[in-house]
Structures are given as structure tokens and as C-alpha cells.
Amino acid sequence: MVREPLQQTELQAERFSGYLEKHYEHLHRPHRHSFYHMVLFTSGEGMHTIDFDRFEVKPFQVYCMIPGQVHSWHFTAPVDGYVVNFPDHFFRDFLYNPYYLERFPFFSGISAEGVFQLPASLQKKVPALFDELIAAALDAAAPPDMNRVLLLRILLLMSNAVAGYPAKAIPEQKKMILHNLRRLIDMHYKSIRLPKEYADLLYITPNHLNALCKDLLGQTAGELIRNRVLLEAKRLLINVNKTVAEIAYELDFQDNSYFNRFFKKYEGVTPDEFRKQFLK
């Protein structure tokens, strides 16, 4: 798997056509970033695969990805728009909140939540702000906080635009428990696999945790944990430099055969078959 080479100490913003020209060789192959990656298309056609979910590229569609997600592009017509990359610490000192970006629904790390259509009311305003951001990023005399303010305006405008998308309102307490559960699973999925252990970390009962997950996500807590392990397994399998045995060890499986049985049970193919199918 390709990991995009990038000196990621500050924000980078540019038109997508120029970005594509510079990185064309590997953008069509599965790769992952160590930074936040956001794209707004203003024209073009094609497909975008994020964590093995496919989306059709359309004008005024926004893609938001967090560090670690795997994606690739397949364009069928000339594309343009805007791309912004920034490190996870970009807002940390500015806002004194290490978890600030987690409040935005499109930075959840769930591919379907990170793709949305920009409403008509913002189709002039947001691109104009992207143009300002590009100009500020190129201006060596501009104060660094100018980039942060402009990007924050874009994120807040987009967040307000997608705020009405959920089918039902979620009480804040339930939303916070779910948010903390996802964060804990991301931190510990390799070593903690039992819902009871996550319930203990959240100071709630396993029954309460399962009821909440079923109500809000239609999944049990166990399925949520398992799906996170499977997602990471698939991300790692794209890296041809790692053997299946090495991936099994990295994901804390007892042995390679157990990992093979686990993967085939839920994906319908063995890890080797998945790797061959996807890379083909």
C-alpha cells in the first residue's frame, strides 16, 4: 500500500487539478494518510473508494477523511476542485481542545459520514473561502492563525449544512456515550475485544451499552468492535509488504489460522483471497 509522502507540519491547500498532476502516479492506488484530508469537487466524474466503500464523484461533493483511512481515486472525466491537508495538531494549541475536530460529524472516521453534497446555498461561499485559504497558505507574511480561522469557517459552515442529515435527534448523553465508545474502540480494538470491558470503561452496564448501540446504530457493541478489527485487517492487507501471519500478529490474534477463520467467517473469503481480489 502506498503512503503518500508529505512533510505534514502545517496546512497545505491547493486546487485539486494541480494536486492531481503532482500525485497522479499513486492516487489511483490504495493509500493512507497520517493527516486530515478534505476534498471539495467542483467538476469531474469517477469513483472514490474510502475504507472499501465506493462513492460516485459529483460536482460540489465533499470528502472528509481522518488519519489512517485507506482510499483511492478512479476518475473518468477531468476533475477540479480543492484539497486541504492538515495535521491532527493543527487546531490543538489554537483552541486548547485536543478533541475539537471530533465534534464535526464528517470527521468520525466512518466513510459514509465523511461524504456529503454541499447544499446550493454554500456552492459559491465555500469555494470562495477555499480560494482565500489557498492564498493565505501561500503568503509567507500571513499569520499562521489566518489559515486556522479560514479553515475553521469552512468546517463550521459545512457542519451546519449537514447537521440536519441524521434521521432522528440523539440525546446529548447518548451521543456522548457513543462518541466515547468509538474513541475507546479505536484506541484498544487490538487488545480489548469484549463489550463488557468497554462497558466497564464507560461506567455503564453491558446491557445498557448493547441497548444503546442497537438503538442508535442497529448493531450490538460486539459487532461494532468486530467490524473495527475487520476494517483494520482489510487496511493492512492492502499492504503487500506484510504477510498475513504478520498482520494476524499485529492484530493480536492467537495464531494465523484463527485469524484466517475469523476473517473468512465475516468476509466470506480468506485474507489472501481478499488481498488478491482487491489489488486486482
TrEMBL record:
Classification via InterPro entries: AraC-bd (IPR003313), Homeodomain-like_sf (IPR009057), HTH-like (IPR037923), HTH_AraC (IPR018060), RmlC-like_jellyroll (IPR014710), Tscrpt_reg_AraC-type_HTH (IPR020449)
Domain HTH araC/xylS-type: 179-277
SMART domains cross-referenced by the UniProt entry: HTH_ARAC
Top-level lineage group: Bacteria
PROSITE patterns, A to Z: HTH_ARAC_FAMILY_2
Record protein name field: Helix-turn-helix transcriptional regulator
Alphabetical UniProt keywords: DNA-binding, Transcription, Transcription regulation
Species name: Niabella pedocola
Keyword Transcription on entry: yes
